[in-house]
Amino acid sequence: MTGDKSILIKNIYYMLTYAFQILRHDNYDEIATEDFDNVYDMFAAILGKGVSKQLKQGLYKEYVLYEDDLSTLRGHLDFQSTIKNKLAKKQKLYCHFDDLSVDNLYNRILKTTMWFLIRNSDVKPERKALLKKNLLYFDEVDSIEKSEIKWDTIRFQKNNQNYRMLLNVCNLVLEGLIISTEKDEIKWANFIDEQRMCRLYEKFILEYYRYHHPYLHPNADQILWDLDDGIADFLPIMQTDITLKKADRALIIDAKYYSHTMQIQYDTYTIHSNNLYQIFTYVKNLDKDDTGNVAGLLLYAKTTDKMQPDHTYQMGGNTIGVKTLDLNCDFVEIKKQLDNIACQHFGVLESA
Fold first, then answer.
1. Rounded distance, CA 17 to CA 22, Å?
2. Under 8 Å CB-to-CB from 40, ≥6 apart: which residues?
3. CA distance 10 to 5
4. pLDDT tens digits for 304-334?
5. What pLDDT does residue 284 have?
6. Which of the seven top EC classes does this enzyme belong to (predicted)?
């Protein structure tokens, strides 16, 4: 996806503000007014501000298991090791005990990501200076190898909710890197990879509708299979990206972020077949009574391909649309595009 890179980078920031509403808070306001030449400079700005804010509240701590020789009993006594101390004439108790520590996975990821951004030549000096200042408070925190981070195992709860946005930014940064093991150099990808942009794109659209049009009850719904005998063994889960509902009408949106919005074979353009089969299946199973009140929409991020889909089909009594969302324009225009989609399916929109 090409075009005016600064506009697209700014729109990635706006997408992040919807996906993670903490970015709407006052201390991030100046970031929204800046023009960024590259995505890593923008991430450095967000992370610099975000970590500074977190330092004022205190770094997240977790209980960590320690083992040590102590003068007094603490935690669980290791009898065998304590006897060895006695035999060695050491008047110490060997104990296993828990203690709150900032040296945990969450802070290790923050520290590692800040170091990577400091080493990126595209990040401006003033951003690096703030990151270096933040790192002064991470002396007790170890770094972590990128390959050791199991992103899908990270969980958030009440005490570390503020880390959700920060670690998602870290994910976008670290997983965008290409590591050269030959010379131990960091080579930077020009942009966020397609898979991660797709997840951000999906979450942005969902949160946009939740924020501006809550009366449409936007949600990522699970659709039950319309089964004759009720046996659903081994059938896959049908999870929508976005479902909008108003009265007896529903619109299922499947958000797609691809390098090419259409597939081509022998100079013939067609819609991605798997995408079309999927949205049709979702629509027909949700509209099990064949009312025709359920519609589907494949919403692709617009690319520079000469052929861009903009079609509406009537399939088995339901409407299936295929459109693109232009992200390479001012954000007010992006809002108009999303509002128009809802308006076309539900009529006059209410004010949020």
1. 7
2. 117, 120, 122, 123, 173, 176, 188
3. 9
4. 888 888 999 999 999 999 999 998 888 889 9
5. 97
6. hydrolase
The residue type of 22 is I
In terms of pLDDT, which residue wins out, 323 or 352? 323
| Rounded Cα–Cα distance for residues 208 and 164 (Å) | 18
Two structure tokens written together for 50: 């975000």
* Nearest-angstrom CA–CA distance, 31 and 28: 6
Fold for domain 195-346?
Trna Endonuclease; Chain: A, domain 1 (3.40.1350)
Q: pLDDT at position 2, please?
A: 44
pLDDT digits (tens, 9 = 90+) for 106-140: 999 999 999 999 998 889 999 999 999 999 999 99
Domain residue limits, the chain: 5-60+103-192, 62-101, 195-346
The first and second tokens of residue 180, run together, are: 């050269």
CA distances from 20 to 106, 210, 245, 257, 339 (A): 17, 12, 23, 19, 20
Concatenating the DSSP letter of every residue in 167-202 gives HHHHHHHHTTEEEETTTTEEEE-SS--HHHHHHHHH
At residue 182, the pLDDT reads: 46
> In 10 A of CB 259, how many CB atoms?
10
Closest CA to 321 of 244, 209, 208, 239: 244
DSSP state of 326: -
* pLDDT band at residue 186 under the 50/70/90 scheme: low
Residue 108 to residues 46, 60, 61, 104, 232, Cα–Cα distance (Å):
18, 11, 12, 6, 43
Query: Higher confidence at residue 288 or residue 68?
Result: 288
Tokens 């170890």 sit on residue: 142
Eight-state DSSP code of residue 219? B
